[in-house]
Predict the structure.
Amino acid sequence: MSLPAALSAALAAAVLVIALLVLQPEDAGPGAGSSMAETEALPRLREDFRMQNKSVFILGASGETGRVLLKEILEQGLFSKVTLIGRRKLTFDEEAYKNVNQEVVDFEKLDDYASAFQGHDVGFCCLGTTRKKAGAEGFVHVDRDYVLKSAELAKAGGCKHFNLLSSKGADKSSNFLYLQVKGEVEARVEELKFDRYSIFRPGVLLCDRQEFRPGEWLVRKFFGSLPESWASGHSVPVMTVVRAMLNNAVRPSDKKKELLDNEAIHDLGKADGSLKP
């Protein structure tokens, strides 16, 4: 495909994404952002959480959200053991990463790597690809099959709190493949009945990807040109998503399922307080 044709296709895809995000109704479900009292309590909640010496695994640490999530977990010092589960070993130069454990697995034969999923209290799943990169079947295979099998093994391995990065507008009955797959995997992971299951549905993720994706670049530029009050309803910085995930993890909850939409992610992710131990 020529460059002009590729850019035209990317522009068409970007327009479709924008239309989907703007027009798609959001079913927030159970789960919420942070109240003023919760925000003020975050430093204490983080310290209490650290004292529990919990272990965590991250799926998709090579992606933008997973990479930022790992960095923030290490900076906040929330877990006594951090494990990355992925198809290849990642290389880190910084001293802060020296104690990070890495389990290299073949996602086509995950049952053979069940031990990688054992002994973790908390799990974060940031796995995902694109239809353009993997094709329709490949996208479904990664975003649904890999995620679901990983969740099954995590549950069998003793994981109590499973966190799933999904998408705004996720709906298993959607006519759009991306939203349909995201909604389907949300529902099927719920059937596993984790002690606590947190779903995050961000809008367009605002970040500077290491991998250039023209369609996403156009969407980010579009939202970057809009008034913040409007853009924040349909987009969110990756760092805000990551901090929402961690702020949510440290606060106690008696809900079996939590669904945080883009607004709740903004509220919880922007909650301040002393982040580092």
In short: The mean pLDDT is 84. The radius of gyration is 18 Å.
